[in-house]
Amino acid sequence: MIDNLQDTVTLNNGVQMPGFGLGVYKVEDGQMAVDSVKAALKTGYRSIDTASYYQNERGVGQGIRESGVPRDEVFVTSKVWNDEQGYDSTLQAFESSLEKLGLDYLDLYLIHWPVKGKFKETWKAMEKLYQEGKVRAIGVSNFHVHHLQDLMNDANVKPVIDQVEYHPHLTQEKLRAFCEQEDIQLEAWSPLKRGRILDEPVITDIAAKYNKTSAQVILRWDIQNYVVTIPKSTHEERIRENTDVFDFELTEEEMRQINSLNKNDRAGSNPDNFDKV
């Protein structure tokens, strides 16, 4: 379990990744992206998660450069979007992401969604990028167990990460167990269910007990479940507040109570049906 903001988890290829980071989905490119990244790095974050689909890679890269934090201390993730998938187009998409970010390499590159008939070719391209040292680790996002099994049947390199929607209304127990068994790190996007879970009485009661916010309780729950988490915010105060989760610990009973809130309810699309993503 990570005990501070710089603590890392060791991925299955030996690369160390911070267990807590900043997500920048729907953060506008330009000054907003620059300022969000700079605020996070100033606070002590060392992991930034973006994607070509977010259209803010330029701002993210600028924020990293302007922060003054050495490049080798920042763990940068990006993702290949659905219409970029396929072998050659993935290689092109990667180069485009690198150019926009202004970086020489990525720490982690993910398949954003499991596009049927495409994701295996996409993975072959990502294996090439990995073998050439252009990316330190490769993984996937929004893959169910059956997608992971299908991918690994033909893969030479095992994914290090599956980044999925994960929060107390969607605890992904089957996927968590499979990833643990396969040594694939689970990572949470939308850990706060886009704000729709903050009023849950179980969570507000626990928050009151520890003098914490509901968001802090949920992020602590992620950490204690050994799930890497990347909450998004554009406000420096909230970016700081989200990290204030290392000075308390939820009891086993409180973890059980939060786990029991599961409804298999998504804020985003189901990976088996994401045509409108």
From TrEMBL:
<protein>
    <submittedName>
        <fullName>Aldo/keto reductase</fullName>
    </submittedName>
</protein>
<dbReference type="Pfam" id="PF00248">
    <property type="entry name" value="Aldo_ket_red"/>
</dbReference>
<dbReference type="InterPro" id="IPR044500">
    <property type="entry name" value="AKR5G"/>
</dbReference>
<dbReference type="InterPro" id="IPR020471">
    <property type="entry name" value="AKR"/>
</dbReference>
<comment type="similarity">
    <text>Belongs to the aldo/keto reductase family.</text>
</comment>
<feature type="domain" description="NADP-dependent oxidoreductase">
    <location>
        <begin position="31"/>
        <end position="262"/>
    </location>
</feature>
<keyword id="KW-0521">NADP</keyword>
<keyword id="KW-0560">Oxidoreductase</keyword>
<dbReference type="InterPro" id="IPR018170">
    <property type="entry name" value="Aldo/ket_reductase_CS"/>
</dbReference>
<dbReference type="InterPro" id="IPR036812">
    <property type="entry name" value="NAD(P)_OxRdtase_dom_sf"/>
</dbReference>
<dbReference type="InterPro" id="IPR023210">
    <property type="entry name" value="NADP_OxRdtase_dom"/>
</dbReference>
